[in-house]
Structure formats: structure tokens, C-alpha cells
Amino acid sequence: MVSCAQSGVLVKSYRGRFGQFWINFCGTVLYNERIVSKAAETAMALDILFPVSLLPVKFENHVLSAFANAIWQCSTATEVSRVVHQAANAQESSISGENIHFQGNRGSITFDEKKPTINLFEGADGLTVMHGNAYLWVDDLVRFAEEKLAPQRLKDDAAIVRGWLGNQRGALTPDQREKFAQGFVQYLREGRAPSPALQESFNYFKAMPSAFDYNIPLDDKIRGVMARLLAV
Fold first, then answer.
1. How far apart are CA 51 and CA 45, in angstroms?
2. CA 157 to CA 143: how far, in whole Å?
3. In this structure, is residue 170 part of a structural domain?
4. Are residues 60 and 90 in the same domain?
5. DSSP secondary structure string for all residues of the chain
6. 153 lies in which domain range?
7. In whole angstroms, what is the distance from residue 55 CA to residue 68 CA?
8. What pTM was computed for the model?
9. How many distinct structural domains can be found in the chain?
10. Do residues 91 and 121 both lie within one domain?
């Protein structure tokens, strides 16, 4: 159950016992934010975490809608608690300077040059890990290519990536890193490995069910860059 009012947002678990009485007095509190502005910021993070609404009904209140949509897509009270608090913590971290990027409801990336971290949620699969790795790899690729001693092949690959992403110079944006990560997942799911040693893994990625299916045009040049990130 989620309650949204001018005094904040309250989320409680509900097991059906004693109906409304159980909700109001005995339900476990999963989230309770009395500061309206913070609840609204958490709702914005939930919108990023769950960009597609699966709710069978619509709410005029955006905060209520964001919380309800997130809860609707969680399978347990434990998952609800984790997801909501992850969203709340993400907002606090973004204010303090950290860049947190969500991968649907399967994981997130704390993007920090000193210590980037891939966080896996309960719904994570193998492609969640590869998506997160690609999100970080592409940034490393273009940054290392700017070094004076960078080999020409690395510079050429960075130029291909920048052209594909529409970024001629400077740091990549979160949207550009996400596009590369999605394209990399799509490349894996095509099932054509760059070397025989990797074919079994590519077969696995191609066969596994996943929500990470994207419709991003890939050309042979960008496929070549992705292959070189994997092949040895």
C-alpha cells in the first residue's frame, strides 16, 4: 500500500489480513518520508528506474503514480523496500556529486572516475553485467585515446565510437554512454562471436530471455569496435 499526501509518502506492506485495519495499524512500514520535496525527488528517481508504466490505472498525482508503478513491478515487499530506498539514496548521491545510472529494475551504475561500481538487483541477469561493463568501457576507451602515447588503433576506435554517438570531442554524456551500452547488448544478442573461444558465451546471450532487447542500428565499424573490446 502507498499513501501520498501533503505530509509526505508512506509505503506499507499488505498481506490481506483484517483488511484495512491490518494496513493502517499492523502493516510493516517499507518507506516513510515526511518531507514532501524529498519524496518528490525519490519519485523522479523511480521514474528513471521504471521508465515504462505498467499500471492498469492512471493517477493525476505524479508522485503517487511513480511510487505505485514501481511497487506494481516488484514481486516482494523486500524488493519494494530495496528499490524505493535505492531511489532515495540515488537522489541524495546525485546531489552530492555522484552520477548514478539505473538499468531498469535490474541494476544501477555509480559512475565515479575513482571507483565506478555496478550494483546488481534481484532481477539481474548476465546481460545486466555486460550492459554495465559496456557503459564504463566506452568512457574508458575515449578517455584513453586522448593520451599522447595511445596506440593508433585505439584512437581509430575512439573516432568510430564518437562518430556513431555524435560526439566529436569532450566527455561522453550519460545518454551517449547508455546508447553504446544498449548497442553492445544488442551486439551480444546477435550471436556472432568475434572469436571461436567466445561463441559459447554469445550463444548463451542470444538464447537467454531478457528485457534488454533494443532496436539500435549497428554498422560493421561499430561492431568491430565492440568485437575488439572482447576478443584477445
1. 10
2. 12
3. yes
4. yes
5. -EEEETTEEEEE----TTHHHIIIIISPEEEEE--HHHHHHHHHHHHHHS-S---SS--SSHHHHHHHHHHHT-SSHHHHHHHHHHHHHHHHHHHHT-EEEEETTTEEEEE-SS--EEEE-TT--HHHHHHHHHHHHHHHHHHHTTSTT--HHHHHHHHHHHHHHT--SSPPPHHHHHHHHHHHHHHHHT---SSGGGHHHHHHHHHS--S--------HHHHHHHHHHH--
6. 117-230
7. 8
8. 0.58
9. 2
10. no
Q: HSE on the CB side for 44, CA within 13 Å? A: 12
- Report phi then psi at 211, rounded to 5: -80, -10
Does the residue 103 lie in any domain? no
In a domain, residue 106? The reply is: no
Lowest average pLDDT, out of 14-23, 26-35, 99-108, 176-185, goes to 14-23
**pLDDT tens digit sequence for 47-93:** 767 777 888 888 777 778 888 888 888 888 888 888 888 777 765 54
Contact status, residue 172 vs residue 138, Cβ threshold 8 Å:
yes
Could you tell me which of 150, 151, 109 has the C-alpha nearest to residue 130? Answer: 109
Q: Which three cell numbers stand for residue 122?
A: 534481484
